[in-house]
Design brief:
The chain is of the alpha/beta class. The protein is built from 13 helices and 18 strands. The strands form four sheets. It has a six-stranded mixed beta sheet with strand order 6-7-8-3-9-10, with helices on both faces. Helix 3 crosses helix 4 and helix 3 runs parallel beside helix 5.
Length: 447
């Protein structure tokens, strides 16, 4: 099996910017490739082109060819393409088609000609393979981001594709899930499957990869082992104002959250947040971290409390980025906001995007725009659900610095598996284990 990319170029529909420029790459049986690079450099676009699809917001201008076993990918019949290559998107919810987990897995298998009995027999082994310990009849909408990620990986595995393209597959996974997935991918590679992974968290996967490329200027450049980061080097240190914990800004007794006809996701006798503290929500995939953020959002306690969900596109609806930033402040009656919005845009490094359509941006850029729309409102409590997805290390740092600069008194609650944050950015950890909520101070941060 082989994948060969020959003189591949892609230019956005407006013709003003080329994100992939005369790119060449050859990958053979069982190779494990990691691609990294700055947010918005074209990594996700490259994966879409490898599987033979174009940008969701327009066709753009494509030249060059992607070959699978010396056949152009775009010449393959859809069922042949499903056998050849599979892709898992950065936001797994974007790929959900069915209303049950087993039906989601069966969809791809039916596309390649599996009988009903073959599909039924394969479903539980697929769930076991990705360590997704849930009932097959569950609705995908009740799953956490990490569980959805595992489901879509299982869906990709169901078609037994020879090339597997994964767009930030580790971003939503806890540490155990990350190790399990890398183990599964190693097994697939040993069977000859080509695995191409786009990732920013190199410390987690660099040793797993056969080759690591960084993308810049529309090209791929091999990254030598000596330049691969360690977990310690990727830790993010922030230096917001010291927390005195003399002012409770949010408190609730006897918290509980449950989905219809299901046992509680979590329960807690009392939870309090203090002004200005930064809190990490921790727990395995499906523990209830996102649900706890939803609880905060639905019980604002008369405070200005805004939550950014895992998929920032859900928050974007304006025609331009500047309109997106302005919508909240205008709705809340804030005056003289023009200068303030420019300050917000500069802090989040989106000044050059102000007249772009938010939904035409990369996922990482969309996240910074959605966060900017929240910070522009000057909230007292900010909830962020996996805010480092789609962000390179430099942008993770700039995002946290922007929050520090624009909302120095705000309480920040972050649901994350990203050890870059957990190792250096938090004042306190709130952990959800088996439905129980507990709190522990973070280790002293070293500047």
């Amino acid at each position: 099996m082989s994948l060969r990319i020959e003189q591949l170029s892609y230019r956005y529909p407006n013709g003003k910017m080329s994100v992939i420029d005369q790119l060449n790459l050859e990958v053979t049986d069982g190779q494990r490739v990691v691609i990294t690079g700055p947010t918005g450099c074209g990594k996700s676009t490259l994966l879409r082109l490898i599987v033979g699809s174009l940008q969701r917001h327009g066709q753009g201008d494509v030249s060059g060819t992607v070959f699978w076993n010396e056949q152009p990918i775009t010449d393959l019949h859809p069922h042949e393409r499903a056998r050849a290559v599979a892709r898992v998107a950065q936001q797994p919810k974007d790929q959900i088609l069915a209303q049950r987990v087993d039906e989601e897995l069966a969809f791809g298998m039916s596309a390649i000609g599996y009988s009903s009995s073959q599909q039924k027999a394969a479903i539980q082994p697929l769930l076991d393979q990705v360590q997704l310990l849930i009932a097959p009849e569950r609705h995908p909408n009740t799953l956490s981001g990490g569980q959805l990620q595992r489901l879509m990986i299982a869906s990709a595995l169901a078609t037994k594709s020879e090339i597997l393209c994964l767009d930030e597959p580790l971003a939503h996974l806890d540490r155990n899930g990350t190790q399990k997935l890398l183990g599964v991918l190693t097994q697939l590679a040993e069977m000859g499957v080509i695995v191409i992974m786009v990732e920013h968290r190199l410390a987690l996967c660099a040793q797993w990869a056969d080759q690591v490329y960084t993308m810049s200027g529309g090209q791929l450049n091999m990254l030598p082992p000596s330049e691969l980061p360690s977990q310690k080097s990727q830790a993010v240190i922030v230096s917001h104002l010291p927390v005195t914990r003399d002012e409770v800004i949010w408190s609730h007794e006897k918290m509980t959250w449950a989905y219809p006809k299901s046992p509680p996701v979590f329960e807690s006798q009392q939870l309090s947040l203090f002004r200005g503290e930064w809190v990490a929500l921790e727990g395995i995939n499906g523990a209830g971290k996102s649900s706890l953020l939803r609880f905060l959002e639905r019980n604002p306690d008369s405070r200005r409390l805004l939550v950014l969900p895992q998929d920032p596109a859900l928050c974007l609806f304006s025609d331009t980025v500047i309109d997106e930033l302005a919508y909240g402040p205008r709705s809340w009656g804030m005056d003289n906001i023009d200068e303030w919005l420019i300050t917000v845009a500069e802090a989040l490094e989106i000044s050059d995007l102000l007249h772009r359509a938010p939904l035409s941006l990369s996922s990482g850029q969309q996240l910074r725009v959605a966060l900017g729309a929240i910070l522009a409102c000057k909230p007292e409590i900010i909830g962020l659900d996996e805010p480092t997805v789609g962000q390179d290390h430099a942008h993770v740092v700039s995002i946290l610095q922007a929050i520090e600069a624009l909302a120095p008194q705000a309480t920040v609650v972050i649901s994350t598996h990203d050890e870059r944050l957990l190792d250096g950015a938090m004042d306190r950890h709130i952990r959800i284990v088996d439905g129980q909520v507990s709190s522990v101070d973070a280790p002293r941060r070293q500047q």
